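In this section we walk through a basic example: taking a raw amino acid sequence and producing a predicted 3D structure, encoded as discrete structure tokens. The instruction is simple. Fold the sequence below.
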Amino acid sequence: MPSLSRLLRSPAVPRLPFPPSPLQVWAVGVDSAQITWGSLPAGVIAVRGRGTRAGVATPPLQIEHEGGPGGLELTGLPSGAEVEIVVEHAGGQETLAARTLDRPSGELLSRVATASDLHIGSDHFGAMKLMFDHPRGRPGFEDLPSIDLRTSSAALAAASTWGADHLVLKGDVVHHSEQSHYDAAGAVVDQFPDLPMTLLPGNHDVDGLGNHPVLPDFIGGRELAFTRGVDVIDMPGVRIVAADVTVERLGTGTLVLVADDTLSAIAEVDVPCLVFVHQQLQPKRVAQHWPPGISGDEANPFLDRLDALVKQTGQSVLISSGHTHRNRVRQHKNVLVTEVGCTHHWGGVWAGYEIYEGG
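The resulting token sequence is shown next.
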């Protein structure tokens, strides 16, 4: 009997009538908003924004759309304001609402970007691994790179174009510990030789399921090394703390070996700190969403110690993880805890942090 996944991929089985994702404001900056959509008809798309509080209107932005999914960024919006964004397309007109971020005081000092869960070597995606890329051998698509390569390269290219001074890859860079997967990941990072990077391992990088059971010392011609333990990168106005929380051949993570060094690295400086790990810090002992990360029995005492340090020093600290393939944010007392999604579950997703003199 054929498997469920094989049946769902069979041309004989009609596609389920899932509606495409609607127009949405996917991300905002201090003066910008990114608009994305799952499907719009071919034709001209015109976007204009207006800050309702500041009364500032942006010039219309127009693109020629070939139909289907897409996205664009509207710039020149007022900072810290409620904005109204009008999108006109061949199918009609829609209005979206958003709020731009408050611009901290002083000069912009640094830009730090991060991407998570590239899973280079994977040919499928989705919660039940039933979504596959279109066949690349069809006419006109013979040379199309696979989805893992397209989306990871797109994420890194977008972060580089944004002006990232440093990029942190937060684990699961490869899908399994196969030499071919590591080679392909090396080719991706080699596309950006001038972008400084930090490379954290994830559980897939150390799963031991491939023909390279030991994590390689580095990937690519630029010889980008994996962080083991805790690495510190000091930049204008911010300290990056990258901690390896993986356990070889396990999907879950642990802070046991890196908690003290991470806290010490933060305590040594009086600037904001960005802490990057692979597995998410769970609020509960048992994971409330898949996959399990770092148990709340470990995560919460660590966050409490970090909160006490923040209260003592007055620093700003943000923790960013991956692993769940989702985008989430929560507050643990005075510490901001975030998750950044998988690059091919959320096509080309990445996160960026701007550090100003004032915050």
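Looking at the output, two observations stand out. The CA atoms of residues 27 and 34 lie 5 Å apart. Confidence is low (pLDDT under 50) at residues 1-17. In the next section we compare this with other chains.
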